[in-house]
Amino acid sequence: MTALPAWSQPASVVTDTTDAQSLPLANGAARKAVITFERLGIARPIDLRGIDGSAEIGFSVRLDEIVSRARLNLNYTLSPALLPGISHLKVFINDEVVQVIPVTRETVLAPQRLTLELDPRFMSDYNKLRFQLIGHYTMECEVPFHSSLWASISNQSTLEMDYRPVVLNNDLSIFPAPFFDVRDNSRLNLPFVFAGQPDIATLRAAGVVASWFGNHADYRHARFPTYLNGLPSRHAIVFLTNDQRPSYLANVPKVNAPTISMIAHPTEPSQKLLLILGRNAADLQLAADALTFGEAAMSGTSITIKDVKYPTRKAAYDVPRWIPVGRPVRFGELVQNPLDLQTRGIVLGGIALNARMPSDLFGWDTKGVLLNLKYRHTPVMDGDNARLNIEINDEYVDTVPLTNSRRDGASRLQLPLLGEDMSATQSKLNIPAFLVGSNNRLVFRFDIPPADAGHCRATNLSESRAEIDPDSTLDLSKFDHYAAMPNLSFFANNGFPFTKFADLAETTVVIPDQPKVAEIATFLGVMGKMGASTGAPATYYKLLAARDLEKVGDTDVLLISDSGAKGILDQWGKSMPAMIGAAERSFGPLSGAVNAFYDWFGIDRSPKPIQGANSTWSGDGPLAAILGFESPLTKGRSVVALTATNADLLPDTLNAIQDPGKARSVRGDLTLIGGAQVQAFRTSNDVYYIGHLPWYRWIWFYFNKHPILVAMFGIIVSILIALFAFRALRKLAARRLKRDDAH
Questions:
Q1: CA gap 250, 252 in Å, rounded
Q2: Is the pLDDT of residue 417 over 60?
Q3: The whole model's pTM is what?
Q4: How far apart are CA 12 and CA 487, in angstroms?
Q5: 540: Cβ–Cβ under 8 A, 6 or more apart, which residues?
Q6: Side-chain half-sphere CA neighbours of 662 within 13 A
Q7: Which residues contact 498 (CB under 8 A, 6 or more apart)?
Q8: Phi-psi region for residue 37, left (φ > 0), alpha (ψ -120 to 50) or beta?
Q9: Nearest to residue 53, comparing CAs of 112, 107, 113, 131?
């Protein structure tokens, strides 16, 4: 391998080593990746059932690479009832048969491992790997979906891919590729490079760009390894001003206006650098904003920004990736393609729908989220136990029986509408509020058994079809925005309360006066998390150094600092649930995070008392923490602090909020992170409320927490009603007596 010149080795760098699926080959000319089916979105082992069971997996190839070699390492188990000779498993790549795996007496006795070579010539940008089981359990009459006809493919099976680079032209028209490639389903690791220690204005511009890339990365998550006066050997984003130029980019011409350019990497011809250029940091901010707003016509090798037209500010909760509150939302608004709401096959698969909601929905006194469901399906046989099962976040919600609603003899077909060979039905149901969180996955599973013609009779294995109508609605109109804080689960799930505004308009990020590279990388990673949560770039947030803490104003505060930044932590120490130092840690009384009802909705009618006392410990072990508390500067505003005993541990806080398994453990007002372990605590039952309730709901909610007051109020109201009734009856009696005396 050719050694890199000294200048290409980073003087200061924080990289991410948690994603080790991609490995360089020995010759340095290619890349090798080992990808499990689980990473391709297969959460469970693949079950193939029936005489013709099939399943498929999608994978893609980056624009800047081609596949030179592909290998499938398959782990599978076959039913012992399968007959050798006539039963087999077929493997396809883009509908081309690459292997037929025969069933033998030996292969049905235990789980099997098999390595198959895949021909790269059959591969393109988007690829489909398909498995088909041809299964038989008897030579005579057989039931097509007999329970003994099955095969299971482990989701730990792997695709082993060797890639060779493709040298792309320096053309901004392909942007955001190759820096972010939509074909790549792995986590985005995009280095950000600065000529030296960046100032606050430059870092703010970098934060905007990071949020934009985080938006595009979405579910993949994004990390931004930070380089100061160094250059990685891969695609990178470089921020340069006329006065700050590293020696390895000394030949880049100075600019007279904000500029965006794409150039080849100085030592890696297949890699690209995106240069964000300006005369000063203010120009860098304009170039970053132009990039995120899409104002610039991205083409050619370089563009100059003359003017940026800023869009109208978004209102609170007008977040592109969140379901609107206040009106029913059509399912068609939640998917990119109506075909995503359809399923077809002999055995129907599930229809999944992602629904992101604001964290502060007040659902305490509601029955749940109203779902007005419309669906169509092919006719079911009389007497069949056909049904539609509904789940949310892997929790069972309800089952709807499927029937034929059309009249006998109706056979009209009218195009382009769906014909009447599919039954159309509508159901209204409530999803219990306690099952609903910030990021939700609704799954609709149609179970339509195939026709059973009886023993030894031919069965027509025609496929079934089902669709959830795009006009189905999800209704959050009965929910208000009101929640008790602090609640770190809100932050871990979708960045709330900062993401209340999609552009982070009421957010201030505070970093040390001289941030270390780990603190910069953590700051950029959090901004990427915000962009992924909202679906919009964070163009209106404030970034302040610790010395300017008094300028925070009436905003929510995101604090990123290791324990060495005493200027920040000492000022707010009395308000924080814990102080994490390199040699000393102090905590309030610790209890386990409160119940799930509080953590999902921020409302707890009877929080458990917290036992214990304040404590101070000595120790030098590694520890990172996420803290939540009310801002000491503005009542009702929130502070979330990401801190650690050492700056190099700050990326652990990113792991905690990006890993779905760990994020579920981020709760309460204090989360401690030690290696792979994440523990959440609540140090105080003192809460503050954000949001607003109508007066009548607020009264009901307030008095519900004080049953004695409710009883006293009831007694007082009863006495008043009795006195009023007594007085009214006395007046009525007096008038009657007066009329009697007149007669």
A1: 6
A2: no
A3: 0.83
A4: 35
A5: 313, 501, 503, 504, 505
A6: 18
A7: 491, 504, 507, 530, 541, 556, 558, 640
A8: alpha
A9: 131
Average pLDDT over residues 697-712: 67
Q: What is the pLDDT of residue 383?
A: 55
The Cα 283–Cα 254 span in angstroms is 13
What residues form DSSP beta bridges with 48?
Answer: 151
pLDDT given for residue 227 in this prediction = 95
Gap between the Cα atoms of 306 and 654, Å rounded:
36
Q: What is the pLDDT of residues 461-520, one digit of tens each?
A: 677 888 988 998 888 887 888 888 989 999 998 999 999 999 999 999 999 989 999 999
- Token pair, residue 261, equals 């350019």
For the stretch 226-261, pLDDT in tens is: 999 889 999 999 999 998 888 888 889 999 999 999
Name the β-bridge partners of 66: 164
Q: Helical H runs in 129-240?
A: 200-217
CB 542 within 8 A of CB 527: no
Strand order in the sheet with 395-401: 350-356, 439-447, 387-392, 395-401
Quick check: 567 pLDDT over 60?
no
Q: Which residues contact 403 (CB under 8 A, 6 or more apart)?
A: 380, 386, 423, 425
Quick check: 117 and 70 in contact, CB under 8 A? yes
Provide the H-helix boundaries in 320-388: none
Please tell me the distance from the alpha carbon of residue 288 to that of residue 40, in angstroms, as a whole number.
Answer: 32
The crossing angle, in degrees rounded to 10, of helices 281-293 and 200-217 is 20
CB 645 within 8 A of CB 563: yes
- Say which DSSP state 310 is in: P
Q: What is the mean pLDDT of the chain?
A: 81
Give the DSSP letter string of 459-498: ---PPEEEEE-TT-EEE-TT-EEEEEE--HHHHHHH-TTG
Dump strand ranges (E) for 633-699: 638-644, 670-674, 677-681, 688-691
Rounded to whole angstroms, the Cα distance separating 287 from 697 reads 47
Distances (CA, A) of 129 to 56, 74, 162, 266: 5, 12, 17, 38
Structure tokens at 644: 């650690």
Instruction: Decide if pLDDT at 300 tops 70.
Output: yes
- What the block records as the tokens of 367 is 């029955």
Question: What pLDDT is attached to residue 326?
Answer: 81
Q: What is the mean pLDDT of residues 329-335?
A: 90
d(CA 452, CA 460): 9
Print burial letters for 286-324: b (CB count within 10 Å at least 16), e (below 16): bbbbbbbbebbebeeebbebeebeeeeebeebebebbbb
Residue of higher predicted confidence among 731 and 192: 192
Distance of CA 723 to the CA centre of its chain: 59
Query: Model confidence over 351-363: pLDDT tens digits?
Result: 888 888 888 888 6
Contact 101, 84 (CB under 8 A): no
Q: How confident is the model at residue 264 (pLDDT cuts 50, 70, 90)?
A: very high
222-223 and 188-189 strand pairing:
parallel
- Burial zone of 225 (CB within 10 Å; 0-12 exposed, 13-18 middle, 19+ buried): buried
